[in-house]
Specification:
It is built from 11 helices and no strands. The chain is mostly helical.
């Protein structure tokens, strides 16, 4: 399960309030639960710290403080800040994928399935804009390895979104360059709204993002028509 982080908290050790501290001493909880709990807290800690300060400015001490654990505990699970970042990035990506897959189950026709998937992802980000800051904003300002992980994640996200297009539409799939431009354009719109402090209104971007996703398959006019229709 994705660790909870409240975007309105203002960051810092306040994030520990949403994570539920373990009772001190001999709490008698199974080791598997303790490990899971602490890893989830560390994930929430790095999400909060990076969303507030950026990747480069965030320290392991700040991550541990936001998670409500010690630096020693941090190093029990992660070798470095980068290691923690990648682990958490993959956790968020999987959470978003599961939300999209679940939302699209049984939805027909295909363009409406794409709408449902996009709506689910936007809703996750709208409920927690720190996730958008962590996934979409921080990588562009971090090192090359993290930026490459971001590009790979965007490719995977696009495949999850439109990769099951019907055969008669799949033949119109855009070139690699056009594909990157479309994905980048959609991500840029999300980033712009989050950085403007309007992350909770991300669902309002659904029509324009759906049009971007469908245009290569349906053509601009039909994609615009479908995107603006109420499901």
């Amino acid at each position: 399960m994705l660790p909870g982080v409240n975007a309105e908290s203002g960051g810092g050790s306040e994030e520990a309030r949403w994570l539920g501290r373990l009772p001190p001493g001999r709490h008698g909880l199974p080791r598997e639960f303790v490990v899971s709990n602490q890893r989830s807290r560390l994930a929430a800690g790095i999400i909060a710290a990076v969303a507030e300060r950026g990747y480069h400015e965030t320290t392991i001490t700040e991550i541990a403080a936001a998670a409500g654990v010690s630096r020693r505990t941090f190093y029990k699970y992660f070798e470095s800040k980068e290691d923690c970042f990648f682990d958490t990035y993959d956790l968020i990506a999987e959470h978003l994928r599961e939300a999209a897959v679940e939302a699209g189950k049984g939805v027909e026709p295909w363009p409406e399935r794409v709408r449902a998937r996009l709506a689910a992802v936007l809703e996750v980000f709208a409920q927690n804009p720190d996730l958008a800051r962590f996934v979409l904003i921080a990588p562009a300002r971090a090192g090359s390895e993290i930026a490459e992980r971001y590009r790979r994640a965007m490719d995977e996200a696009r495949q999850e979104l439109v990769g099951d297009a019907p055969a008669e539409l799949a033949s119109r799939e855009p070139s690699r360059a056009a594909e990157h431009a479309l994905v980048g354009g959609g991500a840029a719109l999300v980033v712009k709204q989050v950085e403007a402090g309007e992350g909770e209104r991300l669902s309002e971007l659904l029509p324009v993002l759906l049009e971007l996703a469908l245009t290569p398959f349906l053509g601009r006019e039909e994609a615009a028509r479908v995107a603006r229709e109420k499901p």
